[in-house]
Amino acid sequence: MLIGIGVSPGVSIGEAYLMRRAKMAAIERSIEGRDVAGEVQAFRDALEQSRGQLHEVKRKVQSQVSSDHLYILDAHLMILDDPMLIDETITTIQKEQVNAEGALQRSLQKFRRVFDEIEDEYLRERGSDIEAVGDRILRNLMGESQFSLTGIMRQAVVVAHDLSPADTVQIDKRKILGFVTDLGGRTSHTAILARSLGIPAVVGLENATSLVPGSTPMIIDGSSGTVILNPSTETFREYLKKKQAFEYFEQELLSYRDLPAVTEDGYRLTLKGNVELPEEVAATMNHGGEGIGLFRTEFLFLGQESPPSEEEQFLLYRDLVKKMAPHSVTIRTLDIGGDKYAPDINLVDEANPALGLRGVRFSLTERRMLETQLRAILRASAFGPVRIMFPMISGVAEVRACRAMIRQIMETLEQKGIPFDPATEVGIMIETPSAVLIADFLAQEVDFFSVGTNDLIQYCLAVDRGNEHVAYLYEPLHPAILRALASICKAGREAEIEVAMCGEMSSDPLYLLILIGLGFTELSMNAPCISRVKRVLRRLRQADAGPFLEKAMQMRTAAEVASLADREMTALLPDIFEEALI
Ligand code: PEP
Ligand code: MG
Fold it and tell me: What CATH code is assigned to 2-21+147-238?
């Protein structure tokens, strides 16, 4: 059993699919005689690097796991010394004059054939260890690895070191039963997407990719963060029951779809969906989302040879707007960079990407790309209510630059007689500490705020949102965050603009009363959470929010706020907060 961070609830049962680098990347080619020694050395270096990595993993896990799991690492280390693998590969490089990758692939193929013919199932399965080691050496030989999710042929639980946004856009929900990753925290990209797609996920396991051989039968519980390998029949039955209970609960939640999102004493909240992949639109509607509060447009740009044209974007935005009307769609301009690193687009190499050329900073450098996107959005505004939102704003000048560009585009559209809505609202994400501190100034410049707590917490608390080592410090209820939220809401109230929240904090029913107390009127979240939040909201009273918030603001630590929230919410709604399914 391995324990990580449960980031997307639900149980999944299936075989592990170890995510490997795309095979096509390792190409065999002929080399010149004078390059032979260099290739042999490169191969030896990759072996040494692999050995070092495995020893490091072993050292790290020694204190955490039983010796049952350590044998896998020992086996891998032994394979690295196997003469058939090493001598054969070197001989192939020398005699056949092929590059190291090609020679290694040939040896691995030979191994594979031998193992495939073994009758003993257990021994045959050990072939997957050789695959894993071979992959490791190959990865080291080739430097930066390229992974691919497209290789999945049948339903499986994906076990990966990490999933980049470029990987996750390839997700086929029918094939992926769950995610298990070495890296990550609650608001890392994979976690957000998994929740949104309703795929159970456990992240931050540190070394799952080394401990889980391919095809291992496994269970993951995305609520508790538990991963069980090779479960016994008894455990299997227990989790099957859990899985069924969870699915039944999910089904029940759909009955909230058409009910208004309102407290018992009439406080109306607008609950909207966050969308990244097109299929999430249907889920938002199924869960009764009243519009899209955050349309992350990054996926349009990832994995493409070139950025999407104005026409392509326009057609997509228009269809989305038409589908959601009369509800509005808030389209966020490209937020690339930082944890949303996209090698094809972010061409600069940065020491601190989170503090670098990301979000609106990137857009204001690559003005063409932003102009194209804004024109497409504005053209879509002729077909239904659209709002434009800019990410990573850290000062008034950026907002003004963006608005100036919008004005200019509107003028051109008008001159050309292309229809658009001149009253299209323009808003910004509040997700940097500087934006919080000058929220009153910013409120004078825009039509709405949407608080991006995922980044706001990261930047305010100086805790990388995707780093499992500091995940324990990533606390939405930290007094600094509550103060930040209070001051954002105050600035919004005074300027009479709407303050929404679209970070993951909006989706946890435990925080709901605090958010009502602070004065949020719009919450945007992953689709499955809309009905979860509504279910709780309809049983709360706004009258309870003020006194509760007052108490919460007095607390000195996040743990104190959390236990207060737990106590209060359980006292108010024992039937909901005592159950494990929430
Ligand atoms: C946020 O930062 O809270 C947010 C909603 O945006 P993203 O997660 O895409 O950075
Ligand atoms: Mg953000």
Answer: 3.50.30.10
Higher-confidence residue of 554 and 18: namely 554
Helix, strand, coil proportions of the chain in percent (round to 5)? 55, 15, 30
Residue nearest to atom 1 of ligand 1 (CA): 452
Q: How far apart are CA 489 and CA 515, in angstroms?
A: 10
> How far does Cα 432 stand from its chain's mean position?
19
Per domain, the residue ranges of the chain are 2-21+147-238, 33-141, 254-577
Residue with CA closest to ligand 1 atom 6: 452
What's the chain's average pLDDT? 89
- Cα 451 to middle of ligand 1, angstroms: 9
pTM over 0.85: no
Question: pLDDT category, 69, cuts 50, 70, 90?
Answer: low
Residues in the chain: 582
Pick the CATH number of 33-141 from 3.40.50.300, 3.40.605.10, 1.10.274.10, 3.40.640.10: 1.10.274.10
**Probe ligand 1: pick from 169, 429, 463, 515, max atoms within 8 Å of CB?**
429
C-alpha torsion sign, points 475, 477, 479, 481: positive
Q: Please give the backbone phi and psi of residue 180, each rounded to the nearest 5 degrees, phi first.
A: -135, 125
Strands of 156-160's sheet in order across? 2-3, 226-229, 217-221, 11-18, 156-160, 176-181, 201-203, 5-8
Tokens of 256: 């909230």
If we measure between CA atoms, which residue out of 175, 221, 238 comes closest to residue 11? 221
Torsion of CA 435, 438, 441, 442, to 10 degrees: 10
Which atom of ligand 1 lies nearest, measured to the CA of 505?
3
Token couple for 268: 């109306």
Q: Closest ligand 1 atom to the C-alpha of 187?
A: 8
Q: At residue 71, does pLDDT exceed 80?
A: no
Handedness of CA 205, 207, 211, 215 (dihedral sign): positive
C-alpha–C-alpha distance, residues 477 and 259, integer Å: 29
Nearest ligand to the CA of 299 is 1
Q: What's the CATH superfamily of 254-577? A: Phosphoenolpyruvate-binding domains (3.20.20.60)
Strand (E) positions, 135-277? Answer: 156-160, 176-181, 201-203, 217-221, 226-229, 270-275
* Residues near ligand 1 (Cβ within 6 A): 294, 296, 335, 431, 452-455, 502-503
Residue 389 C-alpha from the chain's centroid = 20
**Mean pLDDT of the region 228-241:** 95
pLDDT in tens, 486-526: 999 999 999 999 999 999 999 999 999 999 999 999 999 99
Residue nearest to atom 8 of ligand 1 (CA): 454
